[in-house]
Amino acid sequence: MTRRYWNIKLKEMMKAGVHFGHGTRKWNPRMASYISAKRKGIHITNLTRTARFLSAACDLVFDAASRGKQFLIVGTKNEAADSVARAAIKARCHYVNKKWLGGMLTNWSTTKTRLQKFGDLRMEQKMGRLNRLPKRDAAMLKRQLSRLQRYLGGIKYMRGLPDIVIIVDQHKEYTALRECITLGIPTICLIDTNCDPDLGDISIPANDDAIASIRLILNKLVFAICEGRSSYIINP
């Protein structure tokens, strides 16, 4: 795996609040080695370890992107949704930021059928055919289109299973994580002090509740993906 310098600074992470964990009563004992201290009833994450695992994750996505691999970013909590969409669009990744529909990956045939239906409806709308239908039928199809856009809009161009899945808040996105484990899809998980660090292939200990923390982690990964994609374009 390629080793590169990703400019991950402890001061920058502290400013973004990456080190703040959950309250000491809400923690997973398996996170003990990732915690450096307790402060006012809150666990403090060891940022040296965060930097180490974030660097490893950047190396992984850089190498994968340089080989043309596809990524899916998952983060449906309110604090993560906008950052997930922006990061995915910037790096030309697929994303889910509203709701994870059970079986989205493990029942890919059903998801593929939904995506085909979504594509058909988008084309019908683009061609103006929905407006030529009876009002009741048009309204029903437009509601269906709106729902599909909300839940599948971020994966509308996904033609097969992703090669790597990046998960923001392992605890919240546990269903998505289990599907990846079942299918053997490598995962990079942003984990807070209430998570299990052994479930993801690379687990990055960080505050998964602060927008600034989530954005910083995603920005580092996105930069690495974009660098890898540039390498792939230059040396296909």
UniProtKB/TrEMBL annotation:
<dbReference type="Pfam" id="PF00318">
    <property type="entry name" value="Ribosomal_S2"/>
</dbReference>
<dbReference type="InterPro" id="IPR023591">
    <property type="entry name" value="Ribosomal_uS2_flav_dom_sf"/>
</dbReference>
<dbReference type="InterPro" id="IPR001865">
    <property type="entry name" value="Ribosomal_uS2"/>
</dbReference>
<dbReference type="GO" id="GO:0005763">
    <property type="term" value="C:mitochondrial small ribosomal subunit"/>
</dbReference>
<dbReference type="GO" id="GO:0003735">
    <property type="term" value="F:structural constituent of ribosome"/>
</dbReference>
<dbReference type="GO" id="GO:0006412">
    <property type="term" value="P:translation"/>
</dbReference>
<comment type="similarity">
    <text>Belongs to the universal ribosomal protein uS2 family.</text>
</comment>
<keyword id="KW-0687">Ribonucleoprotein</keyword>
<dbReference type="GO" id="GO:0009507">
    <property type="term" value="C:chloroplast"/>
</dbReference>
<keyword id="KW-0150">Chloroplast</keyword>
<protein>
    <recommendedName>
        <fullName>Small ribosomal subunit protein uS2c</fullName>
    </recommendedName>
</protein>
<keyword id="KW-0934">Plastid</keyword>
<dbReference type="InterPro" id="IPR018130">
    <property type="entry name" value="Ribosomal_uS2_CS"/>
</dbReference>
<dbReference type="InterPro" id="IPR005706">
    <property type="entry name" value="Ribosomal_uS2_bac/mit/plastid"/>
</dbReference>
<keyword id="KW-0689">Ribosomal protein</keyword>
